[in-house]
Amino acid sequence: MHSERVLKTLRPNLSQVPLRSDNAGCYHCAYLLLSLPSIGDRTGVKITRYDFSEPQAGKDICDRRTVALKSDMRRFINEGNDVKTASDVKATIESYGGVKGCYAAVCRVQASAQTMTKHTMAGVQALHNFSYENGGMRVWRAYDVGPGKFYSAVRLARFGTPQSPTKLVTLQPFNGPHI
Questions:
Q1: Where are the alpha helices (H) located in the chain, listed in sequence order?
Q2: Which domain holds residue 24?
Q3: What is the pLDDT of residue 130?
Q4: Global pTM?
């Protein structure tokens, strides 16, 4: 089974989503931001926004969920279980009834399917809010302050080649939390 359709399986009526993450460098990069429209096309769920937590703004929902998961993981390990593989992490996340709003799957990445190998979009780290609109992407340094800067789809295409299907294979599917 391919992971690109799992979200649609869990929520069949879902047609669009805004995303939010912490400000970690692995997320706050042009590779991800330039790939989101094509990911939305493949999944059938349009990604309308991508917002990063403001630096120094305190804890947000991502951090609160992670604290609960880390607590469950410590308890799981203290009970004599090992957490060495992705399957172990999934079992930990789903233990004790799960954490509200958190889902886990074990997938195999096909590195050979990576098509976006370079980009020329600079200055992404200074931006925190991205809106995917018809015909392009609008960006802001602070949430909806001013009109933002609009990049047309033609200009975005010059920044980097879009990521084609990832061929991500789901080895253990998502299960919803029991709570």
A1: 6-10, 30-43, 61-78, 86-94, 153-159
A2: 3-175
A3: 92
A4: 0.71
Interval 123-147 mean pLDDT: 88
User: Which tens digits make up the pLDDT trace of 101-129?
Assistant: 778 889 888 888 777 667 778 888 888 89
Q: How many domains does the chain have?
A: 1
Res 52 pLDDT > 70: yes
Please give the Cα distance from 89 to 31 (Å, whole number). Answer: 26
What pLDDT does residue 147 have? 92
Alpha-carbon distance of 15 to 44, in angstroms, equals: 7
Pair type for strands 104-108 and 169-175: antiparallel
pLDDT of residue 114: 76
Count Cα neighbours of 95 within 13 Å in the Cβ-side half-sphere. 19
Report the DSSP pairing between strands 46-52 and 104-108. unpaired
Which residues neighbour 63 within 8 Å (Cβ) at sequence distance 6 or greater?
22
Contact 175, 103 (CB under 8 A): yes
What per-residue confidence (pLDDT) applies to 122?
A: 80
d(CA 78, CA 176): 24
Would you call 21 exposed, middle or buried from its count of C-beta atoms within 10 A (0-12, 13-18, 19+)? middle
Residue 88: strand, helix, or coil? helix
